[in-house]
Every structure is written in C-alpha cells, then in structure tokens.
Amino acid sequence: MSGHPLSLAINGRERLLTDRLITFEPAAPQRTETAAVVGLGYVGLPTACALHDATTRVIGFDISEERLREIKAGEVDLPEQERSALASALAGGGIELTSDPAALAGADAVIVCVPTPVDAARVPDLAALRAACRTAVEHARRDQVIVLTSTTYVGTTRELLVEPLRERGLRVGEDVHVAFSPERIDPGNLDHVQRRTPRVVGGATQRCAQRAAEVVRRMTDQVYLVSSPEAAELTKLYENIFRAVNLALANEIADACAELELDPIEVTLAAGTKPYGFLGSFPGPGVGGHCIPCDPHYLLWQLGRRGLSSPLIEEAMRAIDRRPGRVVQRVVELLGEAGVDPAEARVLVAGVSYKAGVRDLRESPALPILAGLRRLGVDVRYHDPLLPEIELPDGSPMTSEPEPHGRDWDVTVIHTAHPGADYSWARDCPRVLDATYQFDAVPHRRVV
C-alpha cells in the first residue's frame, strides 16, 4: 500500500488493515492510444481533459449539440487553467467532439460519465444511464475497455454492460474488459485536482480490473483495486451517504449552537483539531449539487425494493430536504422582528448556485428558498454574477439583479458567496441572514 493517508476515523487502527487494500502497480508504462468519453458534463468534460495528457486522441461524445457548441465556444464551468488547456486541445485536434455514437468503435477505452439524477419523488432517473450504456454496448469492439463512472445502484455495471455485452457474443474478461470506477471530481475546488485524487476500480474479472486500472491511472497517481464492480459501486454511495449524514449533523449542531449562543464554525474548527475520531463539516442553507442530494436515494431505492429500510440515512435525507424551509422560516422571523409583513417585504438572495465558484444550479437549496418565499407573497429576487438567468421548479423564470443596493431590501440572504465577487453593498442592508455562517463582511449579520 502507498503512503496515501486514509480518511478513516478509527484511531489509527487502519495500519492493521493495510493488506486489505490493493494498490494497482502497472507492470510497465502503458499508453492508451484513443479514449472516448460518453457524456461531457461536469464529470465527463474534466475527464476528457485529464485523458488528453496521456492519450494520443480523445473522443468526446455527447448527444446534445448545444453542449458541444458550448464546449467549442469555451462556455464551460472549468477553472481558467483547464479552460485554456481545453481550448488548446480542441484547436490542436487532441480532443475531438462528436454526436455520432459510431465514433466510439474507434476507441481503445470508453469511459461513461453521464448524470444519474433522481426525479421529484426521489426515485432514481436511469434514462440517461441506460441510454449511454446501451450506446457503449452497441458500438463495443474486441479488446476494448469500458469503464462506468456514473454514481448508481449496486449491480448496474453487470446489468447494463456485462450482460448486454455477453448477449452480443463478446466474452467479458477476454474479448472486452468492463469495470466500475466512481468519479471523484470536486467542481471548483483546486485542492482536489484529479491527478492527486485516488480512484477505486472494480472489474468484472481480475483481468478487467487490471485493464481498467491502466486507463484510470492516466488520470490519477493512485488507483486502488476492489474485488468487484459491486464493491466499487457501493464505495461511491457510501462516500456520499457519509457526507449527507455528516452535513445533516452539522446543520443540527448549528441549530444547537444558535440556542446556546455559540458559533458553530468555531466549535467545528475546535473539534477538528483532534487528530483522530472526528471528520467535521460546516453548516449551510441546505445541500445541493449532482451528488449528495441524489446519490443516497439510489441505495434507499434499491433497499426499499427488497423490503429493507435504513432509518439513519432516511432521516438524514429528510433533514436535508427540510433545511431550505428553515432558512425561509428565519427570514420570516427577521421580518417579524422588524414589524414587516412578508406580503409587503422585499428580500434578496445573494448567490444561488449550490456551491461557491461554480455555475451549477442542480439541487441548489436556493431554488426551494426562492419558491418558499414567493409562496408567502414576498417580493423575492436574487443576485448571482455566475447565473444571470434561472428557472424555479414551477418553471418560472428569474433574472439576476445586476447591481443590488443594500437599502432596497428588507432582508438579504447570503446563500452562496462567490470568490472574487463584490458583496460590499450588503453592509447597507438593515437585515442580513447569513446562511453560510461564514460571511463576516457584515457586522450585524444574523445566522440561520
């Protein structure tokens, strides 16, 4: 095992388990000549960029012509350095964009990176995943490596790739090699670049795992092998379920801190000085993005079909769903303290993306917060320099306030504070509700 530290709160006893974790060690430097990436969203596009540095040719496949136009125009949510590298790769032909699935047959490796959301009832929406896997199977050829990276339920790799390939007459582990390697991309966080973020690979056979690890190793310095695709699939779900439970706990501790007149950030940082047994998170207005609000429901859905429950995970997800309502409640409380009727109030939500520094609106807590305030009759607007236009869950469009003035609003809710953005205007707002718990620019701020 390498010297990479494990994120385990088990008091150092991980040293007794090092033989259980298998580090992939390539026998000799390998080079995949051509790699294809299926799906060019928040995971697929960075994956294509990472592969460009280690392959002769990268094929970026997406069914959306609009998405391909955005990428060609540089209208992508990538750090500046990666955006420049992408532009150079496109100009030099190192990355080729296409909507023609037949191009996949020309790749030595195919990496599937499509979204796996849930619907309004929190049931997994498998449409994009099934379509992408079906496309990969239809165009698979002998000696190809197919790696699924999309977070999904346990057994997906065998159901959507291994079995259909066998039905096509391709022997998995001999003619074609299949594995699951969950993505670990942290959008907007330059501390967690792909090269320094370890990956896990679970192959349908031992040979599949080795071949897939050779491909994944192009994107990271460290690859760990697990016994099966199923083990790798549950690994990813466990990672994000842990985050969900931890974030629900962080918000609950923040509420306790409010009651006891303590600062939850101070308490969390102080607890974090313990070098073992604690892995903390910061509270906020809710949980957004394509992972944490969605992924745990894949396991809950799968267990539910078997008549099983997971009470801790279920309650954590309910708590996450309730959190935006708590923000709305606090806005109403602040208005009440000022004697302002919600139906006559003007409220501004500052920042609506789910995470600072990114333009991703998926599952953002800002959406139910805006909708909840509207239902109360509040004249609610938003300001976000990264998202000039958004759409609420009911389809209502909204446009960002370009230059807000603090005195124009009864309450300003700090939902997402983007780095480098100017929020000095918020000091002039009489009431500022800091849902990030870290917006120190306004001395009179209140927290959720």
From TrEMBL:
UniProt-listed InterPro entries: 6-PGluconate_DH-like_C_sf, NAD(P)-bd_dom_sf, UDP-Glc/GDP-Man, UDP-Glc/GDP-Man_DH_C, UDP-Glc/GDP-Man_DH_C_sf, UDP-Glc/GDP-Man_DH_dimer, UDP-Glc/GDP-Man_DH_N, UDP_ManNAc/GlcNAc_DH
Keyword NAD: yes
GO biological process entries: polysaccharide biosynthetic process
Domain UDP-glucose/GDP-mannose dehydrogenase C-terminal: 348-441
Span of the signal peptide: none
Domain of life where this protein originates: Bacteria
Pfam families (alphabetical): UDPG_MGDP_dh, UDPG_MGDP_dh_C, UDPG_MGDP_dh_N
Recorded coiled-coil stretches: none
NCBIfam families given in the database record: NDP-sugDHase
PANTHER family listed in its UniProt record: UDP-N-ACETYL-D-MANNOSAMINE DEHYDROGENASE
Name under which the protein is recorded: Nucleotide sugar dehydrogenase
